[in-house]
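From the shared-data thread, chain only:
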Amino acid sequence: MTHFEIERLDFTKEAVRAWAPRDHRNTNWPVVYVLDDAEAGGKAAVRGSLNDVYVGESRNAAGRMRQHFESAGKKHLSTVRVIVDATFNKSVCLDLESYLIRMLAGDGFYRVLNRNDGITEADYYDRGRYRETFREVFDELRRDGVFTRSIPEIENSDLFKLSPFKALSTDQAVAVDGILEGLFEDLRAGTDSTIVVQGDPGTGKTVVAIYLLKLLVDIATSAPDDDVDSDSLFSEFFVPGYRELLTDIRIGLVVPQQSLRESIKKVFRKTPGLRPDMVMTAFDVGFAEDDFDLLIVDESHRLNQRANQPSGVQNKNFSEITQKLFGSDDKTKTQLDWITAKSKHQIFLLDAAQSVRPADVPPELLTGLVQQAKLSRRHHPLMSQMRVQAGADYVGYVRRILDTTTGTGTSPAVTAELFDGYDFRLFDSIAGMQAEIRRKDTEVGLSRLLAGYAWAWKTKTDKTAYDIEIGGCQLRWNSTQTDWIASPKSVDEVGSIHTVQGYDLNYAGVIIGPDLRFDPVAGKLIIDRGSYFDKKGKENNPVLGKTYTDDDLLRFITNIYAVLLTRGIRGTYVYVCDPALREYLRGFIPIAV
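Structure, as tokens:
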């Protein structure tokens, strides 16, 4: 039964003064409110009329409004909606406040003015029932023009998934708290530092990177008299002493993958305090005029060592940056070295098992980073699985059945497992898997076909051609490399590793191509070099005198499939081209019927 009411009034001193005495709950009851700059006058806000929005909670709404009148950053707001419920308490209001902040940020139509001082998934009595009420509150606010999209549309968007207002898991919150403690300790001491955040696919490394950057900016720009709720997770850092350490701090977020980088820039355009030019490539960092106080590097395993770059210009740039930073064209220097040379403090977020190309920095360098961070007590592991509903065991299971070091599935440690509540299926028909992906996309959205790079990209130059042809089924590779997952044609196309690494899907249909095979005699995975079409994925490195063997290539290809097989939140479907590999995987993946 719905108990809540939403009262709308003009955000003026006169209106609040008249409203306050009408009900004791306006001055003495926990409520949540939404402030925006919609046109006043009782009409629902029309699409396009909202620019800024702020969400708050208080036990004295009228008193809180009077405080907001004194805030220069909120004087332009014109409408307040107060959400009152006879059953609300402080915990419920904190949860509803964070829920609305996240949904407004994900809606993408407004700038959310809230500071990021610690949204977490806190539990409390009867939370499940209250969460149903939250959806009703959302629907009512949407009818009044506050939201422009439905809950599923918002939750499937990159703006929501990459928002700095995400609620942190306990695992992530502990990591962020530890990072802040270590960083501020090093800032006070005036010593340089390297921090490492390490986690498997789906543990939320990118979320931590974005959240942390927003949090540091908010601490740096906070005012001494700011009202910070002592219940917020990171309120201890919004006190004198911390803000001063961040005065004029120069921070950058390095994201190696083009698609993910552009998606994050979209989020930063809509977030006060963050700017798109904060999101950079390693080349941007290398050519920057000034050094950085702090560089946060997401997907650090995708930084490059010296190798033949995708273009002659980038080869020239690699050489120029190395000479500029180190005085000579030292070919042993990598983009990791650029980052440390250009910043006093670095935060590397990484998973060495997600290196997918020979040009990626070698695993031994990443191992060295981790060991160094552990010795200096600046290592923060992320263990909880935030993406795949099957949990962390599923990620480990996928990696074990694709293992390249112990004879693969012949190892006694690898036994068939079932994951209750997770839709994990092996298809014998590519058309059947495609139909199921389309059905899931209609049902819940964000369901896509993915594949290893086992087919040439013909449609790059011939839009009428097909790239992938399997048993009469004709498919095309992704028609865009930027934000492909959200593009209109994506449900009818196939995404490669370069368009999906770092992203979530509801359902992933993974085509394992003829580049990966199974040798039943040897009982292990093998590769077909001629069926692998990523030129940069198998290119030798004459600059460093490196020749990549089939074993090296097997590691890259199995890493690619491990990434693809861990994109799906609700389920993963698999079709395998090689008959022997399909038969092998029948022992580990339930058969679709």
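The chain has three domains: 5-155, 170-382, 392-585.
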